Amino acid sequence: MSVSGTHRDGAAAIARGAVASTRYPAAARKPARFSLAAALIYAAFALLIAVPLLLVLAQAVVPGLFDVTAPSLAPSLQPLLRAFSSSTILVSVLHSLELAAMAAASATALGAGFAFLVQRCDLPGRRVLAALPWLVFLTPSYLKALAWVLLMSPGGYLTQLGVISSGFAHGFFSLPGLIFVQTLNLFPLAAFVIGSALAGLGSEYEDAARLAGARPRTVWLRINLPLLAPAIALSLIAIFAEGLSDFGMAATIARNARFDLLTYGIYAAASDYPVDFPLAGAQALILLCLVVAVVLADRMLRRQTDPKLISGRSRPARRTRLGLWRLPATAALILVAILALGLPLAGIAVRAVTRTLGAGLSAENFTAAQLAAALSPETLAGSAFAHSLFYAVIAAFLACAAAILLSAELDRAKRVMKPLILAISLGAVAIPGVVLGFGYILLWNRLPGFRDAPFPDYGSPSLLVMGYAAAALPYCLIIILAAIGQLAPSLGDAARLQGAESFRRLVRITLPLIFLSIVTAFLLTFIRTVFELPISQLLIPTSGTPAPPVVIRLFNHDGDGLASALSLVSMLATGGAAGAIWAMAKRIAPRRVSATGADA
Amino acid sequence: MTAALQCRAVSKTLGGRTVLDGLDLDIAAGEVVSLLGASGSGKTTLLRIVAGLHDPDRGEITLDGRTVWSAGAAVPPERRRIGMVFQDYALWPHMTVAQNLSFGLKAQGVAAAEIAQRLDHALEVTRLGGLSARYPAELSGGQQQRVAIARCLAARPALMLFDEPLSNLDAALREDMRVEMMALVHREGITALYVTHDQAEAMAVSDRIAIMRQGVIAQFDTPQRIYDAPADSFVAGFIGGFSLLPVSVAGGRFRIAADDGPPLATDSPLSGSGMLVVRPEDARPAELHPGNRLAGVVQARAFQGRCWRLAVGLGPHRIRLDWPEGPPVGAAIAFSLPPERCTILPG
User: Fold this and answer.
1) d(CA B158, CA B191)
2) Which of A60, A464, B242, B288 has a Cα-to-Cα distance from A540 of 20 to 30 A?
């Protein structure tokens, strides 16, 4: 149907007179179907994450792929059969599943209780306690594990203080002890997941149930618990996957307990002489299959949960009055804080300033020599500390810059690339660092064409930093995409209609509005990288060793004092730097008012 | 600076559903046109296609005869010189009012002196003079709305688009803002395309209204013509308050389905089955048009100030009437319809 316009006199006609002088836009362009910049960004993403993983999978089923003497492309199930017929590997698979499952259950229970008490009850000091999961989360798992070795070993601090008997100490280094340590290590994940569900679960449902005559117990059993069930399931899944992928425990306390885990098996096959890449590939394939199965289950669960049902718009819930239970509940939370953070940190701090573990807390045992060594650039420990800080800063810059570029590009390409990259990123979060590190060895040390590339060079810090950045990229991407997702799309549309090209929109509209999220991604990457263990171990450069492998090596070779000093110095420096950067970022951040439109 | 808009055979499919189906629309320079339709009728999609935020599958869009989109070429939105007032205003929260206004001008490389002059003008006509250093969050809803308009004005667009701009304001403010906004649009002589689902708002703001149905325009006419002569029963059903009754009509007489009274008079030349349009204000006292008398039962009543709005049952049918009194529910009521107001639509 075609309708011609009516003619209007007055203002419109006068205004129309001005049309002739209007500067009109440049020639129309063809709609873009392909852009070189986009192709480069996607290629970089593939090279950083997708290709190394594919090589690991290929190695598992094409054992001769990277054979130095007689390379072959013949596919074979032989490495997998070898893995499944090896009792050591089968036991390590069972151990990994056992530990991850038990820790998932206990950490979810602990995290759920923690979240409930902190968010929904009238506890004193709630705000301080709410920071605990974050601090525990940011403390690397291998340091917590090493601290428990110092505390619980038969000659350790807790036996010395008479808190536990030496028989108990011996028994600690077995499955129950590992579950205990892993629970305290991973309960923050449950506290985050269930805590945010609790925060989104407004009081409306509860109020409605109470007005309908339900008692508090019934309200929790029949209303809140079913609504929280998806979050509880997600927490179980996330902790299970994290437990399977964890290398920090596997390389430390689990080895002390002679409790073989799958992640350590991959590391050993890929780096201990004689290396057995096909076997490492087969174990990595088994681990990846387990993790992927878990991630798929997670995806399906998320699809089932209706995001609208539990929304962020609900009214804040009222707090439960604990009455007589207030004191015991507070005591329990303080106990959790002591066990999860206070004791391990104290153990490391004390060991850092004492000569020997056996001499304990006696006055003459104290020394500042180890701290001085850790801070001196001449010693191995001191230089490792400096290297790690330096690598971490570069890796954090790289990962954030890559994540910003990628998310800006994804914002434009909605059709195919966005779900694909998102799926890879969400998957990559669950990919164990030890598998990614192994993939980097295959790509940059074995694959023709890449093997001899001048940059990044296998055995040099460039590859290590690249591995760090790749491991952090999925996290950064998720944080930044989530922040962009919070922005009303109309903000960018309005800028386009005002004539701003994509680069100006990114710099002037998007980046200022997500500034604090970028800083968060940067700091998380920085902290994680200073303490990153599996990739550091696998891609350890010939010169410029980072701190984590040095800590592990010192610990395994009677250098636990210096290892503790190095860890303490690293933690203080990293925490201090991160805190200072965050405080500065808060100050210079653009006014952060409502970015979801312009609500008054 | 203002331009005529032409959309030719614009089609768009989203997720397998045809949202726009070969739609044509012509708007003269300086004209204010509303797109009125239910959600899913394609009005917002059309608006975003005109802006360049979506690409159509087929068709052509021209501004003053220059093609901004066709199958072979597209001017990106940042170079179309089209302004848009968003439903959520889309004010950049990290910029002051003045920065919000000058951002686009700087992006286009407008000289500083000219920017200052355009800002002054835009702030003055929107009565925002003292607020240029404020941030959006420090403004009331009505003020934010005015900043969104000022931002468009300062850019001197060839065409201004309004995407349900009043839906975030409370009822009392809505009418004031509407009057103020449209006075400004008319005074500045801007061509405007205005999306709304509120027929009263569409009637109040537009020179012409395009009523959209399933991706095409069902009727495109002035508000008065649409009110007096809706093109079909869909359009009539969309105008709030109209009641539609199935009738059979022949030779200027019609009979309401399932009503056994004598046939009533109409000016309609139709014959066959049709739909009678009853506008609430058409009801007259029974004795005024004795030949067109109807009797029913009051089913509900609501006091509306200058009259009562009644829901009256006529056999199986129910119609809405404005009536000077409010008889109690269940009371019998008789009224008449002037033959010249008895519009009958086919089908």
Assistant:
1) 7
2) A60
Report the residue count for chain B. 347
When CB atoms are compared, the residue of B90, B104, B217 closest to A488 is: B90
Nearest chain B residue to A495, by CA:
B104
User: Which chain A residues have a beta carbon less than 8 Å from that of B81?
Assistant: 22, 24-25, 499
Q: Which residues of A touch B74 (CB under 8 A)?
A: 28-31
HSE value, Cβ hemisphere, 13 Å, CA-based, for A422: 17
Which residue of A19, A499, A598 is in closest CB contact with B91?
Answer: A598
Lowest-confidence pick of A28-42, A453-467, A496-510 = A28-42
- Note which residues in 202-241 of chain B have CB less than 8 A from chain A: 207-208, 216-217, 220
**Residues paired with residue B295 on neighbouring β-strands, in sequence order:** B334
What pLDDT is attached to residue B1?
Answer: 61
- Nearest to A370, CA basis, from A360, A359, A380, A358: A380
* Residue of chain A minimizing CA distance to B169: A599
HSE-up (13 A, CA, CB side) for residue A184 = 26
| Rounded CA separation A432/A241 (Å) | 9
Phi, psi of B200 (to 5 degrees): -65, -40
Query: A130 to chain B, minimum CA–CA distance in Å?
Result: 29
- Its ipTM equals 0.83
| Closest partner CB to B88 (pick from A4, A6, A488) | A488
Find the distance separating the first CA and the last CA of chain A, reported in whole Å.
43
Q: What is the dihedral of CA A346, A352, A353, A358, to 10 degrees?
A: 80
Distance (Å) from the alpha carbon of B46 to chain A's nearest alpha carbon: 15
What's the rounded Cα separation, in Å, for the pair B122 and B147? 9
Taking the Cβ of residue B55 and every Cβ of chain A, the question of whether any pair is shorter than 8 Å is answered with: yes
Which of the 8 DSSP states describes residue A508? I
Q: What is the DSSP letter of A5?
A: P
Give the pLDDT of residue A316.
Answer: 58
- Shortest alpha-carbon distance between residue B117 and chain A (Å): 17
Helix axes of A547-556 and A380-412: crossing angle, nearest 10 degrees = 140
Question: What does pTM read for this prediction?
Answer: 0.83
